[in-house]
């Protein structure tokens, strides 16, 4: 499985799981010059920006460790741009979640961390 197809697979799995938890999809793979947000979803009146990370092994650090301060800043800058472009969203609260996937693709472990990081680092 290529890196691109593995990323799409992970995002599809995270999307299905989050929908089962009651979230509703607004947009996938929102891109700007600053970066990309994998999933943008709606959770009971809260706009949720979601980063999906998959790591087969912990050899080079796990999926959580890969969302460092630099990556968080890119997500935050992209989210700010999304809010600017979609003015209706500015009247709602937002949060930043991560969905972590690990293990083999036949039986992955999934962990959802709601409110994983905050906007204070910009």
Helix and strand topology:
Layout lengths: L2 H18 L3 E8 L4 E8 L2 E10 L13 H17 L7 E10 L6 E9 L5
Parallel strand pairs: 3-4
Antiparallel strand pairs: 1-2, 2-3, 4-5
Brief sketch in words of this structure:
With 122 residues, this protein is of the alpha+beta class.
Describe the 3D structure:
The chain is of the alpha+beta class and 122 residues long. The chain has a single domain, classed as Trna Endonuclease, Chain: A, domain 1 (3-Layer(aba) Sandwich), CATH 3.40.1350.10. Strands 1-2-3-4-5 form a 5-stranded mixed sheet, sandwiched between helices. The longest helix has 18 residues. The termini are far apart. The mean pLDDT is 86.
Strand content: 35-45%
Q: Which CATH class is shown?
A: Alpha Beta
Q: What is the CA-CA span between the terminal residues?
A: 35 Å
Task: Give me the secondary-structure category.
Answer: alpha+beta
- Give the total of domains: 1
CATH architectural group: 3-Layer(aba) Sandwich
CATH overall fold name: Trna Endonuclease, Chain: A, domain 1
- Which whole number gives the mean pLDDT? 86
